Amino acid sequence: MEYHVKDLSLADKGKDRIEWAEIDMPVLRKEIRKRFLEEKPLKGVRIAACLHVTTETANLMRTLKEGGAEVYLCASNPLSTQDDVAAALVKHYDIPVFAIKGEDEETYYQHIEAVLSKKPHITMDDGADLISTLHKNHPELLENVIGGTEETTTGVIRLKAMAKDGVLKYPVIAVNEALTKHLFDNRYGTGQSTIDGILRATNRLLSGSVFVVAGYGWCGKGVAMRARGMGAEVIVTEVDPIKAIEARMDGFRVMPMAEAAKLGDIFCTVTGNLNVIREEHFKVMKDGAIVSNSGHFNVEIDIPALERMAIKKRTVREFVNEYTLEDGRRIYLLAEGRLVNLSAAEGHPASVMDMSFANQALSAEYLVKEGKELRADVYVVPGHIDKHVAELKLKAMGIEIDELTPEQIEYLNSWEMGT
């Protein structure tokens, strides 16, 4: 088998961790994988996946393989790979993986090229690097592709831009837009795992600190909620007036970054945009300010500006770089500005990824059945899949809910019955 991982001797440890995560992924484990094993809906389908190589992703790969697919996996971020998981997928589950934690940019793209060389029928993306590389470098492979999926807000933004410009050549399902994904994964998963990453990297007390969250989308809501829950005073910065009002109504202080930069002890960007924290903000930050990012790409913090401003740089802890400015102030950048939750911690808990990856698996099945009928565009997850995932999750949690009575259905579908 062709693969590129750090060390196969880590495989047994990785297998134990994959099995631990599996316990908290009953939808993927019990419901979908069992049916996939029996029906083989993905038989003969080659899937190239560019995702964070974590224990949860490993269980998605196992499910796709049980469904009959040939699966090839590479990392969607140079710092997010769990090397023991990568080794376990190769050694214990015969799934080719091309990913090493801390790989440089050249190796990162070599790994993307490796999975694309398998001539995939379906692509699975987390940030759209796989799809963009395929379109730029290998137009000859596009005729093989039935469709793709995209996991993240950032990736969906990129793909919608491609579709708008008329360069997207096959249909992509925006898994991130599923209600059972962004309402839970983005809010509760990102909220908890981001705080986890910041604490593992710094071991700082959040209680009593001023915590600045840039962006109040679903991810920002989760981070703000968890930071406040640990006793921080939370400030939100926004460019969207509606989200800004929502943040204020939720009890957070709202102000421009230029003002928040003077007050914050800890900063976290979750916007999906470029240079949210930049030179003018670094100039007014407190000595000892901690800056982190939980958006997909390491562009939300203007790191080149920080490098230019610093007269000295050193690594003081794993994932913590200290930049000393000319006036003696120190600014601490976490995880090189990359996803702090996956670089310094383990990413989202398995329970919430159970729903996200259930959407991935079922969307792949849907593409096999319906992909040839779809034009090249970005699509939301079909409503029946979204609802089915929610039903399966409730069942796995042992929760029952009411059903509409025939009378209620008639009332909701009628206009004659008024006051």
From TrEMBL:
May play a key role in the regulation of the intracellular concentration of adenosylhomocysteine. It catalyses: S-adenosyl-L-homocysteine + H2O = L-homocysteine + adenosine. Belongs to the adenosylhomocysteinase family. This is Adenosylhomocysteinase. The keyword NAD applies. The gene is ahcY. HAMAP family: AdoHcyase. Pfam families: AdoHcyase (PF05221), AdoHcyase_NAD (PF00670). It comes from Desulfurobacterium thermolithotrophum (strain DSM 11699 / BSA). One of its GO terms (molecular function) is adenosylhomocysteinase activity. GO terms for biological process: L-homocysteine biosynthetic process; one-carbon metabolic process; S-adenosylmethionine cycle. Residues 186-347 form the S-adenosyl-L-homocysteine hydrolase NAD binding domain. GO terms for cellular component: cytosol. Pathway: Amino-acid biosynthesis; L-homocysteine biosynthesis; L-homocysteine from S-adenosyl-L-homocysteine: step 1/1. Keywords: Cytoplasm, Hydrolase, NAD, One-carbon metabolism. Its cofactor is NAD(+). It is found in: Cytoplasm. The keyword Secreted does not apply. NAD(+) binds at residues 152-154, 186, 215-222, 238, 273, 294-296, 341, 348. Binds 1 NAD(+) per subunit. Substrate binds at residues 54, 126, 151, 181, 185. Its EC number is 3.13.2.1.
